């Protein structure tokens, strides 16, 4: 379809102010946070109501125009990179918390609500929405659902999937589909919300989300433990779980990352440590006290050089500052950052960290590793310069080697960043061709014209993406 | 296909000992726990390995023979009633706990493992598998996954769906599909496990399940509170949640049920009470103490006539005896029991209980109501005699009226029993035709010959089931 006609149609449908067509607008929405090739969309639209959203989807279906829905564009696997013959739909104006029900502990939201804003609104009611992806200050709940976003609290509190009670979404044809309920228990029909979660916008366009909430924990306690060797840190993680303590967060940083953080923030971290654990327990005050003491003792018993327990909110913030600045600190070192999220069963973390260090040596690339030790979700972060072709080829080799290592240890390619474009060619190594074929049958049945974020996730050698 | 040829083929495939064909065998597997018409299958097979299970599925696909997988047959919506031209596949011999990993807190099981046996095995490791459907002493984990089974702990601990990390299942063609992981975080490809959970055997035949485990709660405390009126009991439930206490179980029984229990077990319950709450809090000992005190105070403040706190395990058992015998006690009163599971947001329980009482009067039927007040999942239980045609018509009217009442209050037709055959004609009232059409497209794409438990869930007026 001619671009001019498309833009005319969209303007007629939504009003001219909601259709962005200037080169700079299209460029702004041609990429996301993954290191993949940007693609200019034909146009960008910003619907302001759920009805307008549905109209755009129906229009795209009639005309066979690919559409990519975009929240904040923080995607780390290229899932929000549009199609060259398609449009981008922004959800930023669909940002209402439709209902926040403390009595029945659920909320109904539009997809454009920002994660952290939602968490704050919920907290005011004494309630808690645990999923906290790294990008929560800007990421949207719609994006979180489409990607099944994780965060620091996966071990104790699960991921986005565990909080989605129901959805309203538009099918490829633009028909409104309802699924799920405002209740924890609902088995009325297929669990379509379960299918849509993590499907990266390839099966429907989300217009409303029903989220489960839980009581806000009454108390929290944080601590930082420093280790002179990796194995002691790993043994500490295993010993904490073996003691049946499930921290709300149990984070890990390797020496390379610690050094980068120290250079970046001068936080006063000692230079002779190989690994750091950042731990927070939460819950009933007596439980928190008990668990914090247990964890501190375990850290010391496992050989921690130093354990720093935060005694107040200010000290707690200082503990987490190091973790929060990890990615920024690493990103300062080189022009291009490739942030991976290979995940292994937590007991395999020592092997996985070792494997990553070996891979860094073998491929002669710099890798800093930090992440969620509690749930086995590590973030090996490769520092490079995409313009250096020789180095980039080695980076690609290292990434593939990291995938292989995670799978060999019984893990997964992606814990929380999605498959998108970046990992699509590798998916078959984890789930097998059968699982991809099965998924493609679903995709074809639900999106016969292949307009819903085409080319993402379902890629097969020999037949490519669809 | 001729029955004799079918049996010959199955015997050749599995060995004669694994194929049951006698009329009494076929009759034994012609019905489940729902009040629906029994259907005799052509044959019943009992595969002993996952490989044999896959072979049977592939054979059925080649020959176009409908198959219904059956665990313990405790289904309450007719989901395990076979097709008249189909076979029943029993999972009883696929009962291995393949792996129980305390370090990484997951287990891998075959579908025929009995729920309570699994819970016990897990408990020995200091771990907890919370879903506890009423039939857990005989129900299987495969059935629990296929139905997304709930139980008493939904409010605090969620339902089966919340513990399924991954699946292996056979597609309609008999190809083995793997999905999910041994980690809490996994976004590699579509969440097929999420789609399969609660799909009642219509999309695949489950051969392995990866289940998430959590630490076993260190302490528990139970109590029973008696009320002279319904509203006080309901206000108590609301006040407990408003105090941000989330009990592990928060059960309700109405007067009719209490009377039946008293007649059945002579437990010494007073005769002048209208409602009873059974409450258990669990977790850290200090938290349990605090919460039990809070709950007791709330019960008294809301006007409980009597609160009995269990001081030891024996007293705790006595508290729960009344609840455990509720269904048996009601079932003794009349020849036929229709156990419903309409669910509403918990704040709507007073309206829902009132609506059920009004419906009992209007349709002149006996209804005892008990169930999971904490998560809004009530079990209105209609006592009748199916052979009495006039009364049965009134029962059918009452059931439909209960569905309407639940939906009007923002609830769902089925919290945990499934749609199956019994509720299929009503599903569209909850999710709309669009959602059913969308689901049928998935079903058609994945089961082109419609052999996987056909006729369940997806029924539309005008076009019937598929």
Protein described:
The structure is a homodimer of 466-residue chains. With 466 residues, chain A is an alpha+beta fold. The first copy, chain A, folds into 5 domains: 3-90, Uridine Diphospho-n-acetylenolpyruvylglucosamine Reductase, domain 2 (2-Layer Sandwich); 97-215, Uridine Diphospho-n-acetylenolpyruvylglucosamine Reductase, domain 3 (2-Layer Sandwich), CATH 3.30.465; 219-326, Alpha-Beta Plaits (2-Layer Sandwich), CATH 3.30.70.3450; 334-408, Alpha-Beta Plaits, CATH 3.30.70.2740; 429-465, no CATH class. Helix content of chain A is 37%, strand content 21%. Chain A contains 15 helices and 20 strands. Chain A has helices spanning 3-14, 23-28, 50-63, 115-123, 141-147, 154-157, 192-196, 230-242, 255-265, 285-301, 313-324, 326-331, 349-363, 389-408, 427-446; strands at 19-20, 43-45, 67-70, 87-90, 97-101, 106-109, 127-128, 164-170, 176-180, 205-212, 214-215, 219-227, 249-254, 275-283, 306-309, 336-339, 366-372, 377-384, 459-460, 464-465. In chain A, the strands form 5 sheets. Chain A has a 7-stranded antiparallel sheet with strand order 15-12-14-13-17-18-16, sandwiched between helices. A 5-stranded antiparallel sheet of chain A has the order 5-6-10-8-9. A 4-stranded mixed sheet of chain A has the order 1-2-4-3, covered by helices on one side. In chain A, strand 8 and strand 9 form a beta hairpin. The two termini of chain A are 20 Å apart. The model of chain A has no long low-confidence stretch (mean pLDDT 94). At the A-B interface, strand 9, helix 7, strand 11, helix 8 and helix 10 of A face strand 9, helix 7, strand 11, helix 8 and helix 10 of B. Chains A, B: Belongs to the FAD-binding oxidoreductase/transferase type 4 family. Chains A, B: InterPro entries: FAD-bd_oxidored_4_C, FAD-bd_PCMH, FAD-bd_PCMH-like_sf, FAD-bd_PCMH_sub2, FAD-linked_Oxase-like_C, FAD-linked_OxidoTrans_Type4, Oxid_FAD_bind_N, Vanillyl_alc_oxidase_C-sub2. Chains A, B: Pfam families: FAD-oxidase_C, FAD_binding_4. Chains A, B: This is Glycolate oxidase. Chains A, B: Its cofactor is FAD.
